Amino acid sequence: MRGPALTYSRSGFVPHRRGAPKGFGVIRWGMCMSTVDHTWSDPRSRATEYRARSGSALDTIGNTPLVPMTRLTADTGVTILLKLEYFNPTGSYKDRMALAMVEQAERRGEITPGSTTIVEYTGGSTGSSLSFVCAVKGYRLLIVTSDAFSEEKIRTMTSMGAEVVIEPSVGGKITPDLMPRIIDRTRKLAEQPGTYWTDQFNNPDNALGQQTMGQEILAQTEGRVAAFVASVGTAGCAMGVATVLKAHDRAIEVHVVEPDTSAVISGGPAGTHGIEGIALGFVPPLLDRELVDDVIVVDEADARAMANRLATEEGIFAGTSTGANVVAALRLAAARPDLGTIVVPAVDSGLKYISTDLYPKPSLTIGN
Q1: Residue 254 near residue 246, CB atoms below 8 Å
Q2: 3-state SS class at 217
Q3: What predicted TM-score, i.e. pTM, was given to this entire model?
Q4: CA dist list (Å): 316 to 46, 174, 259, 337
Q5: Residue 168 and residue 170: Cα distance in Å, rounded?
Q6: CB neighbour burial string for 262-301, b if at least 16 within 10 angstroms, e if fewer
Q7: Cα 232 from Cα 248, distance rounded (Å)
Q8: By the 8 A CB rule, do 347 and 329 touch?
Q9: How confident is residue 218, by pLDDT bands cut at 50, 70 and 90?
Q10: 196 near 105, Cβ under 8 Å?
Q11: Nearest alpha carbon to residue 226 among 105, 339, 72, 106
Q12: Please, which residues bridge with residue 33 across strands?
């Protein structure tokens, strides 16, 4: 399956359609998506139209760009497209699942703004996303997290009104016992009256929310994608996107990614690593192996190095799990140069990791 001829538009990196206007792209309003032929007009009129259609800040979730890697793929002959999920409001693809988990619970009548306290455990980005959704909708939010995760993520939660409980880590690392301790503390908090535990690892609404990413990928590539490569935390992203892609074409491959020091999906033992948000020491319940074609194991040092290369060579400023995704995608491209177009989520912004050692500290020269 070879990739399509691709043209960049303001909406992202899309297949070129012969005879289409130069501005051919994907337009998405709210939860409705369509591919249209569109000649771009004055950007001020587009902004006015969007404001008229938006009910709240929640409507800005999704419709993220799909852009090509260029320098890092120059010798591969394979097109690798990055879905820039840090364009979501809190800088992460978790905004999609947070909105779905809250709104689906509302539709079922399980929660009500002003009377329900939402409870969740998180490695950081889910907490930021839930804080955003709950701030807009008027829910009290109680988060359990750890000092193993970046300060930026925790401060984002508290800045948007969440109450945060910190479970201490060992040496700031994600150890096999950390997430079970966090979950146990969350379970106890969720026993209090008036609480609702979104329980992201076991909640199918998580994957349902990520289906919008799969729909956007199909629209932006006109369905011509050969493989999707994504690291696994809750597995909501990989499974949500896989459900959509494989319903379109069963031949589309889904490759999941995990670090070599905690490769539990591959059958290895749980171990210690520093890639936030993934490989939490157990196979996530949402993972459906029928939707997975392969598991790619990467070295954490390679993932960290790739995150830095993405920033300096592609201008893609993202976290370590995105680096792991790209390492895996490049390995797949090298092994199968005729595969076609590979899509990879850039899952969150590098701005979430400024306080960590992922990116080099600045060396400043003052004066002459």
Answers
A1: yes
A2: helix
A3: 0.81
A4: 26, 25, 21, 23
A5: 7
A6: bbbbeeeebbbbbbbbbbbbebbebbeeebbeebbbbebe
A7: 22
A8: no
A9: very high
A10: yes
A11: 339
A12: 28
Q: Can you point out the beta strands (E) in the chain?
A: 6-9, 12-15, 25-29, 32-36, 66-68, 80-84, 117-121, 140-146, 163-167, 195-197, 227-231, 253-259, 294-298, 342-346
Q: What is the pLDDT of residues 277-330, one digit of tens each?
A: 666 778 889 999 999 999 999 988 888 899 999 999 999 999 888 999 999 999
Tens-place pLDDT, residues 338-356: 999 999 999 988 887 877 7
Task: Give pLDDT tens digits for 223-264.
Answer: 999 999 999 888 899 999 999 999 999 999 999 998 888 878
- State the DSSP string of 105-161: HHHTT---TTT-EEEEE-SSHHHHHHHHHHHHHT-EEEEEEETTS-HHHHHHHHHTT
Q: What is the pLDDT of residue 79?
A: 94
pLDDT tens track for 262-272: 878 888 888 87
Q: Is 12 left (phi over 0), alpha (psi -120 to 50) or beta?
A: left
The torsion region of residue 96 among left (phi > 0), alpha (psi -120 to 50) and beta comes to alpha
CA atoms lying within 13 Å on the CB side of residue 226: 18
* DSSP letter (8 states) at residue 302: H
Catalytic residue positions, numbered: 94, 321
- Tokens 């709210």 identify what position? 30
The alpha carbon of 12 is separated from its chain's Cα centroid by a whole number of angstroms, namely 17
Token digits of residue 151: 């300060």
Of the candidates 193, 200, 199, 195, which has an alpha carbon nearest to the alpha carbon of residue 116?
A: 195
